[in-house]
Amino acid sequence: MENSFDILLKKLGIARKFTDAAQNQKEYVADDETLRKMVNYLGFDLKNINESEKLLEKIEKQRWLNVFEPIYVVRKNAENIDIVLPLSDVKNYVLKIKRADEKNFRNAKFVLRNEETRTFGKITYVRQDLEICEDLSPQYYDLELETKEKKYRSVLALTPEKCYSPEFLKNQKIWGFAAQLYALKSKHNWGVGDFSDLAELAKICASNGADIIGLNPLNVLFHDFPEDASPYSSISRLFLNPIYIDVEKVDGFSLDMLTGEEKILYQTRNSDNIDYTSVYNLKIRILRKIFALISGSNQEKEFDLYCKKKGDDLQRLAVYQTIYSEFHDKVYGGWKSWPKELQNPNSSAVKEFAEAHKNEVSFFKYLQFLCEKQLAEVYQKIKDNGLKIGLYRDLPVGLCKDSLELWQDRDLFIKDCGAGAPPDAFFPSGQKWCLGAFNPFKLKANAYRPFIKILREAMRFAGALRIDHVMSLMRLYIIPDSSKNGTYIYYNFDDMLGILALESYLNKCLIVGESIGNVPDGFIEKLHERGVYSLSVLWAERWENGQGLFKMPQDYPVNVVCSIGTHDMAPLKARWFGYDIQLMYDLKMLNDTEKNDLYKGRETERKYLLAALDYASTWPSDELRKADYLYGEGYPEGIMPAAEKYMARSASKIYLAQPEDIFGETRLQNLPGTNNTQHPNWHRKLPVDLEDFEHNAEFIKALKSIKSER
Question: Full-prediction pTM beyond 0.85?
Answer without folding.
Answer: yes
